[in-house]
Amino acid sequence: MTDIDPPPPPQSESAQAARGSVFERLSASWERRAQVRSFRWDTAPAWDPAKDDFLPQLLPFGEHPAFVGAPAADRARCLAAAWLAFNENQVGLELSIVIPTCVRLLQGHIPGAQDPALWATVSEALTDESYHIVLTQQGSETSRERRGLRALQIPRSAVIAAFERVQAEHTEEWQRDLILLASTVVTEIFIHAHLRMMSYPPDSLQPLHGLVTRTHFTDELAHAGLFRAVLKASYTAMDATQRAFFASVVHLPVRWFADTDLEQWAAILDQIEFPGRDEILAEARALRRELVDYSSLVKVCDEVGITGVRERLAAWSASS
Ligand SMILES: [Fe+2]
Ligand SMILES: [Fe+2]
Predict the structure, then answer these.
(1) What is the Å distance from ligand 2's center to 126 Cα?
(2) Which positions ≥6 away from 208 have C-beta within 8 Å?
(3) Total structural domains in the chain?
(4) Is residue 228's pLDDT more than 90?
(5) Is the pLDDT of residue 6 over 60?
């Protein structure tokens, strides 16, 4: 006999999954499903100069005649810049919102974060999110190089700017933690729609970019359930003041995500000297319409018992 107890015999995933909390079930499948454990660059498709780097229909001006009729090289560069911005915006969400939320949960600062099963799953999500930074940065590299965009500077996204503005308006640490949690819950809901179209693209798009986005999307499918469960555990543990505050801010990130971020686009189009950019931006600004499907957030809030979110979003929607 040694003085170290032998580890318990391994349980099959199905045996573990058959019981336990959402956190335990997610942890039981992490080794198998996490893309950081399985994604291989050496078998990824090569970048193809004849293919588009991004889907034109996802641009806020993809149908504008000045974009559609632009010289092929300008159009290709603009789509590559869109791919870089798309990736950079995801990195911004991970770095400024989702990863700090995971850290505050693991440090026990956010109400309800006392459960070891929650810590295990949040640590795994933190690993996934850190890997998404590696993945998207590597996924940007060839477009940057081959489309002559090495010097392109992408300003931080409107979502991050708005998040930082709201955080700066609140001095209490617990308020800032709850804004972080709300922002992560909404980010994790919206990132699906954000990634989905690029994940299953047509043949005209770089297969490499489809693969990179689909890899991220696969991890995010599991995160949706995780952060719903985190919200539930956290809201249950909040006191009345914290609950009222959370309910008053959880709809805000929806508004941030509705922004088409034409300021970021103005900076990009200027740098790549896209022909007709003033006309394109003027029309995009005139047509700017903040449309966003927030039904998933309302459903999650209804499940958890957070009231007033549907009404706040409907009032904002009617006024925008
Ligand atoms: Fe992610
Ligand atoms: Fe995520």
Answers:
(1) 8
(2) 44, 45, 46, 47, 48, 139, 142
(3) 1
(4) yes
(5) no
